Every structure is written in structure tokens, then in C-alpha cells.
Amino acid sequence: MKLQVLVSSVNQEIMTLADRMHLQTDAIIVNQTDHFGYEEYMHNGRRIQCYEFQEKGVGLSRNNALLRAEGDIVLFSVLVYELVGPVLTKMALTKAGDIKPKATIVSASDDD
């Protein structure tokens, strides 16, 4: 099962956005800017597709990303990704089986 994050952004540096968002899955970034463009690159072994459109509006950019999505499960990002995005992305990736939760090691201490 393939998980893909769909990102709507405004005037962002798209070549660093995947790193700043701590993306761990394939993603489509739709950046609202003053020109049209397309770039694609690999980030941590994952495909990042970046579209730049002059049209404005979160709904329009979300729909543009959804039209291009190839994932079985898609996760839409929101503008507060710096606060909660990494946590929600990790939860979704864990549920999809794309990443395994880290084991917690508990050490016993002597109370003598």
C-alpha cells in the first residue's frame, strides 16, 4: 500500500520543503507562486514532485495535487505542518506499515 503526502504551499522554496517538513514518503507539492513550473527530485529515497501554479487558493491547489496523486492513501498537509505535521505523518506512516515504531528500552534499576 502506497502512502503519498499532498502539500499545498504559497511562495515556498520547493527544493527544501520536503526536508523542512520531515517527509518520509512520496509527495506532491503544489506551490502557489507567480509562475508555472515542474521539478522532481528524490528526498531520502522518496519521489517528490513539485508543481508551481499562478492560480491561488488552497482548494484549487489541493485538487491539482489530488488529480496527480498515485498513492493508495493520501494525506493532505496543512499550513501548521511545522507544529503537528511530523507527528501526524509519522502516525500515518506507521499505520500504513511504511515505517516500524521504534522499540522502547526500559532498564531496571537496583533499589538496594
Descriptive overview:
The protein is of the alpha/beta class and 112 residues long. It is 30% helix and 30% strand. The protein has one domain. The longest helix has 16 residues, at 81-96. It is elongated and about 60 Å long. The relative contact order is 0.24.
Sheet-strand content, in percent, reads 25-35%
Distance between the termini: 51 Å
- Domain count: the total is 1
Query: In this structure, how is the largest beta sheet organized?
Result: 5 strands, mixed
Low-confidence stretches: none
Keywords:
3 helices, 5 strands, five-stranded mixed β-sheet, 112 residues
Task: Compile the SSE list and pairings.
Blueprint lengths: L2 E8 L3 H7 L5 E7 L4 E7 L2 E8 L4 H11 L4 E4 L4 H16 L16
Parallel strand pairs: 1-2, 1-5, 2-4
Antiparallel strand pairs: 3-4
What's a concise summary of this model?
This protein is α/β, with parallel strands linked by helices and 112 residues long.
